[in-house]
Amino acid sequence: MSAPEQSGGRFGSHLHEDASPTSDASPAPHRQPAPATLPMHPGGDAADVLPSSTEATVPAPRPGHAPTPTPTAHQDSAATVGRLAATVERLRAEVQAARAAVDGRALVELAKGIMIERLHCGPAQAARQLTELAEQADISELELAADIINEAARDQVAQVAADFVQRATTSAPQDGSASVAVRLRTAESAALAADDTQAVAQSLLQHALAPLDAVAVAVWTAGRDGSLALSGHAGFTREEADRWRYVPPGVATVARQALTSRRTVHLETVGTLPSIGQSGCPQGGRIAICAGTGGRIHGVLEICWPHPLPPLPQAVERQLEALAELCGHTLESRPAPSPSPHSPGDDPAAAELVDLSDALHDPALVLTPHLDTDGNLIDFRIHHANLHFQDPAGRPRSSLNGTLLLETYPLSVGAGDLYHHLERVYATGEPLPVRRTALTTLVDEVPLQVVADISVSRLGNCLLMIWRVEDETARLASLLQHAQRLGRIGGFEEDLTTGEITWNSTLYALHGRPLSEGPVALKDLAAHAHRDDANAIGRFLRTVLLHRRSANVAFRLQRADGVTRHIRIVAEPVLDSEGHLWRLRGAYQDISAQHWTEVALAATRDQLAQTAQEAAERNRLTLQLQHAIMPPTHGPLQVRGLQVAVRYRPAESEALVGGDWYDAVVLPSEQVLLCVGDIAGHGIDAATGMVVLRNALRGLAMTGAGPAQLLSWLNNVAHHLTDQVTATAVCALYDPATRILRWARAGHLPPVLVRTDQASALPLTGGLLLGALPEADYEEDEVQLQPGDTLLMYTDGLVERRDTAMHESLTQLLTNAQTPVDSLDQRLDHLLTYSKSDTDDDTCLIGIEVLTEPLD
């Protein structure tokens, strides 16, 4: 036996044995003869083929029993049909077992041939050696044969098997790692021995894909026109296969996705995507892999699962890629829609494309593939340049014929990616038009770029590339046409010597005139305009026709359909060689949208100006009202035993005039009323609310009530006698005779007491803000002041910050209040200067200093 030929994982010599089962008329059960080697069962492992369980036997009469009655004709017919069905089933099982045995025996015989070559022994010695090695390794002869073939071949199948063995320790597959090589080699031998692609598909499903839970497989052949033909299938019904015998170009199927993208398509479920077997398992998964050799894609291998398909392990993906490569070799050697590759000189497609390119009016190149020694595509050769082809670098056509594309145009792989498009068409056979592709060539080492429209198609093994260099004049004319359409501009020209007038289509649309009515002369423009624009149009015509200067005018065009459009016309005179007025050129532009936009903007500006004026007047009155009651600066108020100073800082923005207020007044009882408050909100409402509460508190204080009672009454005023005014306040009564300060608060910050350069806030007392509820009670507290003490009452505009908590702001205030100063005024100015508030709110600050000796 000669040594096998090895090429890319495919072996040229195989031993095939045909099993022709014979029928036995004996009623005894038929027993299948034992095969010489262990055949493959559908799971892919080597096992003995068991006899069929569906065989029918005729039992003999048992001694001592009376014979059964003679069956009727109907019973005889049913029994005959049953025996025939059992016989057909048995024969089918024997045929499948024989095929599996032949496939497995081919691997064993191939391994024997490798051993004969390597060991220089005879066939008998090789057989004994194989049997002894299998017994010593405790594996079957089939598995040992697959290992010997993998070691000798070193092809992709061997790599897949080795990768699977390496990952077996971690992935723990269901089937043994050795059976992977057996399955793949068995599928390979069966495919190479098959007469057609149909048998290849059945072998792939039985030996390699069924152990992966796949239920069906389809082998598609790619046609020159981008169509798909079903060359082989397994697992699909005959009706389903007949419906999908041919898929025209452009139908987006699972196989076409793989063919177009030139990559593996993995779908968890096929869903609504059309494909063969979709009705049988719509929720099943699909994988489509391109099948090709030497850089050429001959078709697609599509595999179906009955359940949703999760991501597969890398070892399984490589196994599927090996099967796709096997299909590629099969499609390459079997008759297919596309011709087998051969030399360009003998290719009738090349001669046909040469004749076709010479009949074209556009530049065209006929390209043939340039393959390396392994059959991989590495470049294209320029077989022919047609008569209209002009090289961008200025080289003659004769110098381009026979050269390689990448050597002639080395920059074709780059920005335009021309070579990628050619490679794609060569692999898939689908024509590809490409708009505005940049073609770059080198002229004396200087890159020269040309923009062109490319069209690439394949015939046989050759490519026809047609390029149409973009005409700059036509491109600019197209751009001008689009600009006129988008800008609603219509051009015109009048020949004053012949009276001929030319309008473009946009100008007819602006005038609302059909083409049958013809254009309107410029001198008759006033008849189609609003009568109030007649003077402006007359000045425009005198400037152009009499003074011969360019001019423009805006007018209202009265169309025949009753629509009024605002139009701007620009015209210029054209003089002949003798200085006479010869022609008029110009353009109309529809500015209706611009006109109404300007009108709307003008009205909006007027409204905004009026609103701004009213707001400024409102703010001015608010400030005047506020300053009339509480001037920003207030001189010290000296009463018996006290010195009172006040500071008021208004908001920086006039639009934020607030309702902060203060008061310091000596009552008839010689007690001093001290209060500070803050109205919620800004503007005139806050200012008027402040006036109401301030004056009400003054009047209520004349009753001699305490601070808590005064705030309770003031709450009723805010709730019942104002328009939903809410406010916070601190009210205090100071008795100069006893130096006792009684105070209460309504939701306001507590006063700060400064004593011997130590500042602290007075304890909080209970009290709801004014105006929130119709009735509210307030707590009252008192503090015994000492000579030299300073009491500070303020609004939140002194301490409030947007990004700081209130207790942190109060701590900062106490720190600033402890700074030694010479006078009460300096203390208040210091607090205002170093205040870190950032809310742009009003600020009221009252300082009360207890004097050492009472004043007279």
UniProtKB/TrEMBL annotation:
Residues 60-70 have a biased composition (Pro residues). Residues 88-149 form the ANTAR domain. This is SpoIIE family protein phosphatase. Keywords: Hydrolase. Residues 551-603 form the PAC domain. Residues 1-79, 331-350 are annotated as: Disordered. The keyword Hydrolase applies. SUPFAM superfamilies: GAF domain-like, PP2C-like, PYP-like sensor domain (PAS domain). PANTHER family: STAGE II SPORULATION PROTEIN E, STAGE II SPORULATION PROTEIN E-RELATED. The keyword Hydrolase applies. It holds the Pfam family PAS_3. InterPro entries: ANTAR (IPR005561), Bact_Sigma-Reg (IPR052016), PAS-assoc_C (IPR000700), PAS-like_dom_sf (IPR035965), PAS_fold_3 (IPR013655), PPM-type-like_dom_sf (IPR036457), PPM-type_phosphatase-like_dom (IPR001932), WH-like_DNA-bd_sf (IPR036388).
